[in-house]
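User: I'm writing a short report section on ligand binding and want a predicted complex to refer to. Could you take this sequence and pyridoxal-5'-phosphate and write out the structure as C-alpha cells? A short remark afterwards would be nice.
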Amino acid sequence: MSSAPFDMAKAALDAAEARFIANNPLSQKQHELAVDALPGGNTRTLLHTSPFPLTMKQGRGAYVWDEDGHRYLDLVGELTAGLYGHSNPIIRDTLLSTFDNVGLSLGSTTVQEHKHAALLCSRFKLERIRMANTGTEANMHALAGARHFTSRRKVIVFSGGYHGAVFSFPNGKAAPNTVDKDEFVVVPRYNDIALAVDTIKSTPDLAAVLVEPMQGAGGCIPGTKEFLRAIQDAAHDVGALFILDEVMTSRLAPHGLGVELGLKPDMVTMGKYLGGGLAFGAFGGREEVMAVYDPRVEGSLAHSGTFNNNTLVMSVGYEALKRVFTEEACVELNERGDRLRERLVQVTEGTKIRFTGRGSLIGVHFVDEAVEVITCGEDIQGKERRDLRDLFWFEMLEEGFWTTRRGFVALILETDERELKGFVDAVGRFVERHRDIMAL
Ligand SMILES: Cc1ncc(COP(=O)(O)O)c(C=O)c1O
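Assistant: Sure. The C-alpha cells for the complex follow:
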C-alpha cells in the first residue's frame, strides 16, 4: 500500500492532538501537578492517555464534565461498573440512609450481607457465595479455593484474558506482574476448541480452567457456546474445576451470560456494578466447592477482608440490583446495546472500523484488512491501526462523547436512544470526514 493514507492519518492525528492540547489547559495543568505524587500522574494505568489524560470533575445522569468545563455523554460507564449512571435516586437514598441508620463499619456479621448474598445467589443461580472488594480479589479467592478443593496447582487461561490487576494474559503470555505466574498455562487463541481441549487434556496437575464468556479487556470478543461448553466438559473430564469470570458479563443477561449460554460452572466470579457503584467483588458456585471456605470445617481456607461486608456496599449493591437493574431492565439495556451496535456497523460499512461485543458492551477495533469475524485477538494481530483508534478518540471527545482510548463502550442505564443516535451520527461524520484513510 502507498504511504499516502498513512501520511494523511498522521497529519489528521497530529492536528487532533494539537486541538486536544489547546482545548484542555486545566486537564493538562492537573496532570503536571499529579506527577509530583503519583508515578506518571496516575493510579490506574488504563486511564493514562498521551499527551495527558482528561481530568473529570463531575458526573450527573448520563453525562460527565471535565475540568475545562466540556460535557460528554458517558460511554465509558466505568468499564461496566458505572451501569447505574451518576444520579440514581435509589442509590443516593440507600447510601444516605445506611450512613444515618446503620453506620459505616460494624465489625460484625450483618443481616444485610446475607440479604445481598441471597439475592446474588438466586439471581445468578449459585448455591453459595462470598464477597470481596474487587473482581481481582474474587478471582484470587476462587483460584485458591479451586486449588484447595482439587489439591492441584495449575490453571489454564486464554490469550487476551483479563481476570484482574494481577491476572492478565495479553498476547499469549502472563503479564509480568501476574501472581503465581508459573502456575498458569495460557492457551494461545480464545475460541479455538481443539487447541483448548488439547491443552486441558495434556496439562498435568490442573486445578481449574478460568475463562470469560466474553473477553472484555481483550476487545469485547464473545466466546461461542460450543467453545465454552467444550472447555467446561474437558475440564470436568480431567477432574478440574470450570470457573467462569463474569466480572464484566454478568450484566449481559438476567442471570448472567453463563446461564444464558447453558453453562454449569463450578464457580463464578463477579464484581463491578454489583456493588451499586462502590468497590465490590464476589465468588460463588457449587455448595461442595464453596465449602472449602466454611470456617466450621476443620482445615478450611481462611478468607479475610476488612471491607468484604462493608455496610454501604452491602446495602447499595442489594437495593440497586433488586430495584434498579431488574431482570426486565437488564433485557432492555442489552437490547438497546444490540440496536446501537447494528447502527454503528451500518454507518461504518466498508471502512476499517469493526465493532464487536454483545448487548450493552461494545468493542471498537480499527483493522487494515477485511476480517470476517474476530474470534480472538490473534485474528487481528499486526493488522490493527492504533493511529486511527487514537484519532477516533480525540474526535469523539470533540463531538462530546467520552469513550475509552482503547476502544470500549459500556452503556449505562440512564443513556437514552436519542443520545445514542447522536453517537451514531458522530461516528458517521467521522468516517465521512476521513473517507480516504478509513476506507478499506
Ligand atoms: C473479566 C474481568 N475480571 C476481573 C476484573 C477485575 O476486576 P477489578 O477491576 O474490580 O479488580 C475485570 C476488570 O475489568 C474484568 O474485566
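A remark for your report: Residues 79, 134-136, 139, 162-165, 212, 216-217, 245, 247-248, 271, 281 surround pyridoxal-5'-phosphate (CB under 6 Å). The chain is about 40% helix and 15% strand.
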